[in-house]
Q: What sequence folds into this?
């Protein structure tokens, strides 16, 4: 009986403790009632990938009844059709979208300016800028006059929706004007400046704003929970490829690899990789403010290096190739739109180009022009397979103090094994293990197949 009484006492104490915890802990409904702000980023080029992500994020915010969407912007601009998709989603969203150019040093250039001004709340961090929205074509100049007029009317109409300064907004298109956050606030183009997202949401709390649909809402964001809606890993990777620096690198390197394939046949992957790089670069150029003069200079640089290799002399064509490469990178993009090749990337590619054509391609050409009678001397010579070994698909061997690409049709050869050259096809050797290596393999085989021996 005593034990039963103790058990009842313990149970009573446990129930009282649970009740106390229930009274102290906030109810789940109260947590659910806390306002939620969905955070999504517009970083990098405005392309179909990021446009689909932002439109979907705004749709999810409406479906879940979020208080607002916080759209953080740092973009040099991009594709007009993708910009239109984002603008339409923002203007027709019942949930207010807060456009915020951040962090310090960020920009809302070209298409980014349209996205920012489409937002019911337009905010910027100190040290940011907005503007430079003149449409740019592949020719490097303005598009047809009717396209520019359409862009001017569009940005003026967006400014009218929210009562913002139409003249300054139109100057972004008409004059490629770009202004700082402080200038934008003074001119009535944006609504406020905030150092960070928490400060921004605190400033917005209690404000009544007008949506693109004409409806008005009062913001309750002071204690809102920010929920990130990031772009997926694979789609983020594809989006990152559309980068001005990568586009420049891929375009020039793609051209270089294709030229290598043409002048020195036998490199299985150089032409394929070069073509893929060129395709990625051209796709990127389709959404970036590219100048045709920049592309022409980059092509000229490859021609200069190639001519220097074919007819070496005083190095004039090589110098032309380097200068054309540097100028091509410098003039590749419309710099007024805030897009450019990083100087460090430009110099690095120029140095790589000189080494690539001066050493790698030159050596390959030198071997190519060796008389066949001299190359045939290598047939029958012995060498060694390098660390990765040689397989029927290929590998690298060292013969006569030179490294060669080789294949072993009779089976894999381990790294470090002695090999003999049986034939030469272009610059690719066919090799086999020497007799001693074959004997060693034959002696090991029974042990491997039959287990231990006595």
A:
């Amino acid at each position: 009986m005593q034990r039963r009484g103790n058990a009842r006492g313990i149970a009573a104490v446990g129930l009282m403790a649970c009740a106390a915890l229930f009274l102290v802990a906030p109810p789940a409904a109260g947590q659910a009632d806390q306002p939620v702000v969905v955070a999504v980023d517009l970083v990098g080029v405005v392309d179909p990938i990021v446009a689909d992500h932002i439109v979907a994020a705004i749709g999810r915010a409406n479906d879940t009844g979020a208080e607002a969407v916080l759209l953080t912007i740092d973009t040099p601009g991009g594709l007009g059709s993708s910009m239109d998709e984002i603008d339409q989603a923002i203007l027709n969203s019942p949930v207010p979208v807060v456009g915020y150019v951040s962090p310090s040093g960020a920009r809302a250039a070209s298409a980014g300016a349209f996205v920012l001004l489409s937002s019911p709340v337009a905010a910027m961090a100190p040290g940011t800028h907005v503007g430079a929205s003149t449409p740019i074509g592949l020719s490097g100049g303005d598009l047809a006059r009717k396209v520019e007029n359409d862009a001017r009317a569009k940005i003026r109409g967006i400014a009218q929706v929210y009562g913002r300064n139409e003249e300054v907004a139109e100057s972004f298109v008409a004059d490629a004007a770009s202004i700082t956050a402080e200038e934008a606030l003074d001119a009535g183009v944006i609504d406020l400046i905030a150092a960070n997202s928490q400060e921004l949401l605190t400033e917005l709390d209690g404000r009544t704003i007008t949506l693109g649909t004409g409806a008005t809402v009062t913001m309750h964001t002071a204690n809102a929970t920010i929920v990130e809606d990031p772009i997926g890993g694979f789609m983020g990777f594809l989006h990152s490829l559309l980068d001005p620096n990568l586009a420049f690198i891929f375009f020039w390197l793609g051209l270089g690899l294709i030229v290598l394939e043409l002048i020195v046949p036998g490199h299985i992957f150089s032409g394929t990789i070069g073509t893929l790089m060129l395709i990625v670069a051209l796709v990127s150029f389709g959404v970036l403010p590219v100048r045709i003069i920049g592309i022409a200079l980059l092509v000229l640089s490859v021609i200069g290096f190639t001519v220097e290799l074919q007819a070496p002399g005083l190095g004039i064509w090589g110098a032309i190739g380097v200068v054309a490469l540097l100028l091509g990178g410098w003039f590749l993009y419309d710099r007024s739109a805030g897009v450019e090749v990083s100087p460090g990337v430009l110099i690095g590619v120029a140095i790589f180009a000189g080494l690539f054509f001066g050493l790698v391609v030159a050596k390959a050409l030198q071997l190519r022009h060796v008389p066949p009678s001299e190359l045939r001397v290598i047939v029958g010579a012995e060498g060694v397979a390098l660390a990765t070994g040689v397989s029927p698909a290929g590998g690298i061997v060292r013969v006569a103090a030179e490294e060669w690409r080789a294949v072993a049709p009779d089976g894999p050869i381990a790294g470090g094994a002695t090999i003999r050259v049986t034939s030469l096809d272009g610059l690719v050797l066919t090799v086999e293990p020497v007799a001693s290596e074959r004997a060693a393999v034959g002696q090991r085989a029974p042990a491997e197949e039959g287990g231990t021996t006595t």
Remarks:
- Residues 1-32, 138-143, 443-454 have pLDDT under 50 and may be disordered.
- The first strand starts at residue 36 and ends at 43.
- Residues 243-368 form one domain.
